[in-house]
Design brief:
heterodimer, A: about 450 residues, Heat Shock Protein 90, 3 domains, five-stranded mixed beta sheet, four-stranded antiparallel beta sheet, about 50% helix, B: about 220 residues, alpha/beta, Rossmann fold, Arc Repressor Mutant, subunit A, five-stranded parallel beta sheet, about 45% helix
Chain lengths: ~450, ~220
């Protein structure tokens, strides 16, 4: 619900309450004023009549029947209310009456009752309510218009802040640049947001630096180990001792594995940090062919047949490194978990990429295949990160990833479903308004 | 062939210098940005091996300086930063090649040779090894003057061996050279054996000497004796 709507709702409730109380006050106030006024007039008439009687003149004939009446029998004195029928209107009209005892010297006393009509309750009520309702309507409309005007004017800085926040992209490594505002609250908000974004940028930079440094710091000693082991292997003395060289070779292989493991973990953390924002149109069919050619020696060695069914697929906006890693890991996985003489089939359509391969039946929960360090065979030398990387890349681009196994022919299929192209982050970024840049 | 090696890690620097000298290069070293900046201003090199992460500066700036001076030196970037953006930035700035640490020294040799060949001869060069002549730009191999028909992988393998005469090449290094960085130790390296067997057979059929030695449990070596 909009802020304005909430405010208006409260205004409506408050106004309705105030106007109800106001109506009651106005009604009773008006009634009391009318009664006072009418009472005063009756008293004046009484004085007039009494003066007339005192002067020895008789009471005049009343002009209207209800003006006053005289009676020889005693009546209760003072003010009282009564209802009289108005023959022309045909309705009962409230009257205030004043009864007094008029004594004329030498005559028996008479009791005179003066009457005057009051406002009709219904009419008074109607007049009060209608005027109050008109007031209410005017006040509310005025309020609405005022708020609309204010929201356009006063809330403009807020809207600008909102647009800037929506378009904000941490990947640009720039804090928000929000303008100051004359309104204290917005100025404070902008200041707080700018401060927050500065801290975010700093934290993000730290994280990036940490990842880069961790990779650097680990890879450097590994590079030294690897280079020195390779130099050791060149020593002529090694040819004299048949056991030493394979030891060195194993060490060399282990160093290499450690370094690959670290690279894979580094890649995973960089994907999670979203550090692969740049994208270019990638022709997946071409890339599949390229990777297939690269892996051809491995396919040959395991006597695997590769069938490519590469349909028309529009170029996708992907990071070249991630696209390469995605295809490599999918194909490599299909090679690794295959049987000698088996086959691999790659289907590429505009909507999906499916890699299926023959392979031994794998026990266990398929959803756990994507877990890190998940190995189908505990003795395997593979660190089990390939499918985690595939999953991370798919998650990063919003692609669907599924695995299924068909017992007939023992086929494993990994399916990557591409979402509409506009859903991938690179496209989204293009559609979003550019954040203000400071130089 | 004169090479400037810019590397801040002393142990790695020493090993690289040793390996490069064994490969027949004249090597000068710079352990930090300032030294490297001085040397590239004063001397001329055939190739600069450039580490990007230096204690007192960014190697990419040295690359910019080299290109701004239109230096004829080839540049091979070596860095532990394998974030693709650095790689792309390096190549965009005009580096000839990029190697990610840790790398195989034999791979470094092969890349270095390729750069220098392009740099010095604009490609019009050939390699001679005993009874072999190779024209890399035409991908042509002659044994005793007679053309030898090789598959793509066999040819790559031969060229890799020729770039590292007398050095032991590990199975890992050969496998990664042939299949790109993508293969790892979990893959079977049998395919190297198959390719080597075929290469040897073809060379012998043309009457070449058998100079490819198998180093048991380790890898292979192109014997210079």
């Amino acid at each position: 619900m909009k802020f304005l709507a909430v405010i208006n709702r409260y205004h409506l409730v408050l106004s309705a309450g105030l106007f109800a109380a106001g109506s009651v006050a106005l009604y009773t106030g008006t009634e009391r004023a009318v009664r006072n006024e009418v009472g005063e007039q009756l008293q004046n008439h009484r004085l007039e009549l009494e003066a007339r009687l005192a002067a020895g003149r008789p009471l005049p004939e009343p002009l209207y029947r209800e003006q006053y009446s005289a009676s020889a029998r005693p009546r209760p004195l003072g003010f009282s209310d009564t209802l009289l029928l108005d023959p022309t209107e045909g309705s009962m009209v409230p009257h205030l009456q004043l009864t007094f005892r008029a004594a004329t010297p030498g005559q028996p006393p008479v009791w005179v009752t003066l009457r005057k009509s009051m406002l009709e309750t219904e009419e008074l009520l109607l007049a009060t309510l209608s005027s109050m309702l008109v007031m209410l309507a005017l006040a509310l409309t005025g309020n609405l218009l005022l708020h609309r005007y204010l929201s356009g004017r006063l809330w403009a800085p807020f809207q600008r802040t909102l647009v800037a926040l929506r378009g904000y992209d941490l990947q640009q490594h720039r804090p928000l640049a929000l303008p100051g505002s004359k309104i204290e609250e917005f100025a404070e908000l902008n200041q707080a947001l700018t401060h927050l974004s500065r801290r975010l940028v700093a934290d993000y930079e730290n994280l990036r630096e940490f990842t880069a440094n961790a990779a650097h710091e680990t890879q450097t000693p590994l590079a030294i180990m690897q280079a020195q082991l390779e130099q050791l292997m060149q020593l002529p003395a090694l040819t004299d001792d048949a056991t030493a060289a394979p030891l060195l070779a194993d060490l060399y292989g282990a160093t290499r594995r450690l370094s690959r493991l670290h690279q894979a973990l580094g890649l995973l953390s960089r994907i999670e940090n979203g550090q692969f924002t740049q994208a270019e149109p990638i022709d997946l069919a071409g890339l599949v062919r390229e990777k297939a050619a690269q892996l051809a020696p491995l396919l040959d060695a395991r006597e695997l047949a590769l069938h490519l069914h590469l349909g028309a697929s529009p170029p996708r906006q992907l990071h070249p490194g991630l696209a390469d890693s995605l295809l490599h890991n999918l194909l490599h996985n299909a090679i690794r978990h295959n049987v000698p003489g088996g086959d691999i089939t790659v289907h590429l359509t505009a909507n999906e990429l499916a890699v299926s391969n023959s392979g031994p039946v794998i026990s266990g929960d398929p959803s756990r295949f994507f877990e890190r360090f998940r190995k189908h065979n505990a003795a395997s030398e593979s660190p089990g990160l390939g499918l985690s990387i595939v999953q991370q890349i798919c998650a990063y681009y919003g692609f669907g990833l599924s695995y299924d196994f068909a017992p007939a022919g023992a086929r494993h299929t990994l399916r990557v479903r591409f979402e509409p192209a506009a859903k991938n982050p690179a496209e989204r970024k293009k559609l979003a308004p550019a954040a203000p840049r400071t130089v | 062939m004169k090479i400037l090696l810019v590397e801040d890690e002393p142990a790695l620097l020493a090993t690289l210098v040793e390996a490069l000298r064994q490969g027949g290069y004249v090597v000068e070293v710079a352990a930090d940005y300032a030294q490297a900046a001085d040397k590239i201003k004063v001397y001329r090199y055939d190739c600069v091996l450039l580490d990007l992460t230096l204690p007192d500066g960014n190697g990419l700036d040295l690359l910019r300086t080299l290109k701004a001076d239109s230096s004829p030196a080839g540049v091979l970037v070596i860095s532990a930063r394998d974030s693709l953006d650095d790689r792309v930035a390096g190549l965009d700035l005009g580096a000839d090649d990029y190697l990610v640490k840790p790398f195989h020294l034999s791979e470094l040799n092969a890349r270095l040779r390729a750069i220098i060949r392009r740099q010095r001869f604009q490609g019009h060069s050939h390699l001679v090894f005993r009874d072999l002549v190779v024209w890399p730009d035409q991908a042509e191999v002659l044994v005793h003057g007679e053309a030898l028909a090789l598959t793509r992988k066999e040819y790559d393998l031969l060229l890799y061996l020729l770039a590292n005469p007398g050095r032991v090449l590990t199975k890992e290094a050969i496998a990664e050279h042939l299949c790109g960085d993508s293969v790892d130790a979990t893959d079977s390296f049998d395919f190297i054996y198959t390719h080597l067997k075929n290469l040897r057979k073809k060379l012998q059929e043309k009457g070449a000497e058998n100079y490819i030695r198998t180093m048991y449990g380790v890898g292979y070596k192109l014997s210079v004796e």
